[in-house]
Design goal:
By secondary structure, the chain is of the alpha+beta class. The protein has one domain (46-171): Rieske Iron-sulfur Protein. The chain is built from three helices and ten strands. It has helices at 11-36, 42-48, 79-86, and strands spanning 50-53, 62-67, 70-76, 108-112, 123-124, 132-133, 140-141, 147-149, 161-165, 168-171. The strands form three sheets. It has a four-stranded antiparallel sheet with strand order 5-6-7-8, with no helix packed on it. The chain has a three-stranded antiparallel sheet with strand order 1-10-9. The structure holds FE2/S2 (inorganic) cluster. The site of FE2/S2 (inorganic) cluster (FES) has 13 residues, from loops. One of its GO terms (molecular function) is metal ion binding. Its EC number is 7.1.1.8. Belongs to the Rieske iron-sulfur protein family.
Length: 172
């Protein structure tokens, strides 16, 4: 086959090709802002996780931090509180869960501060088990955040978190 038999694009074809190419570029340009705005912005990403500096929390103290709109209790447990949590027979618990499954380090308990009954915020160092007491309907939680009495059906939830280093955790 000689070169003479291959159809060469004429000026109109070149115009069509150029127009098509421009349209593709324009569509890509229009789609990028559309796709980009679907990504979470920096402030949303920041809210997705929260870092907590533990250095100022003394043994026995509970602080409350906000994470994704919810309170999270970070409790620096004393040796007595740890011992109480670790030595509670699981058979005595309405929602049996070993303390070791709820903490990454015995000194630190991190739980979502929302009562599992109807969502009130329990009060720390209150109630029969010195964990938390929910003022709404009287649920009591122990030093591991486990439900011990009252209408709440389950333990205080443990959020996903990691130790960034010995003195800092990242929740979420
Ligand atoms: S909301 Fe806590 S006991 Fe009802």
């Amino acid at each position: 086959m000689s070169d003479d038999t291959i159809a060469q694009p004429n000026r109109r074809d070149i115009l069509y090709i150029a127009t098509g190419a421009m349209a593709t570029v324009a569509a890509a340009g229009a789609a990028w802002p559309l796709l980009d705005q679907m990504n979470p912005d920096a402030s949303t990403l920041a809210l997705a996780s929260t870092e907590v500096d533990l250095t100022a929390i003394v043994p026995g103290q509970i602080i409350t931090v906000k994470w994704r709109g919810k309170p999270v209790f970070v409790r620096h447990r004393t040796p007595a509180e740890i011992s109480e949590a670790e030595n509670t027979p699981l058979a005595s618990l309405p929602d049996p869960e070993a303390d070791s499954k709820r903490v990454k380090k015995p000194e630190w308990l991190v739980v979502i501060g929302v009562c599992t009954h109807l969502g009130c915020i329990p009060l720390g160092h209150e109630g029969e088990y010195d964990g938390w007491f929910c003022p709404c309907h009287g649920s009591t939680y122990d030093t591991s955040g486990r439900i011990r009495s009252g209408p709440a059906p389950t333990n205080l939830e443990v959020p996903n978190y990691v130790f960034v280093n010995d003195t800092k955790i990242k929740i979420g």
